[in-house]
Amino acid sequence: MARAASAAGASVVVAARRVERLRDLAGELPSATAVRCDVAVDEDRVRLIETALDRYGRLDGLVNNAGVSEPGPASREAVETFRRQLEINLVAPFALAALAARAMRELPGSARSIVNVSSIMGLRSTAPMPEAGYVASKAGLIGLTRELASQWGRHRIRVNALAPGFFPSEMTDGLVSADGGAPHWITGGTPLGRLGRPEDLDGALVFLLSAAASFVTGHTLVVDGGFTTR
């Protein structure tokens, strides 16, 4: 996503907990800043927004893409596990979006954009894979997206969500593989017959961040190869 935004002309601030990987990524991009950040920590969120403003003087877009997944039957899922997923997948995006919105509305210029990365699991159950906490958090993020869009439209801030289907990633490691391998219930249930590829999200993300989506807000854009059609 950072590469896609950069290719579209954005100056990018990349944030995560693993500094070396961040620096490697930032080094690939023509105008990028790496910030070590745990989105579940208040001070880290504030420092992330302040760094973006100090480095570039403005904030035009925010992509909330941090998340955790801890599958398991709901009857045996600890409340603390459920709470942790809500904290990172829902509470942290809200807090970061609120900080970003306060910075965005004080700056002159064109409309700003916030993109929350939800999941198709925010739109349906994960059967046969049990994930109550993840489903609840991602469904909550879709609802939050609508509400923030409603409240912040008057400040020229658009808020939308992406709902990816199944993509190879660290989170899905063990379920799907980088070479396209996946259980039949995934590939067989996807009309396009394959997993998503990283580049499949590029156009959707750039669209929602850019002026091409200037009249789109409160929307959840599903990128799943048709999985949710069945």
From TrEMBL:
Pfam families: adh_short_C2. Belongs to the short-chain dehydrogenases/reductases (SDR) family. This is SDR family oxidoreductase. It comes from Amycolatopsis rubida.
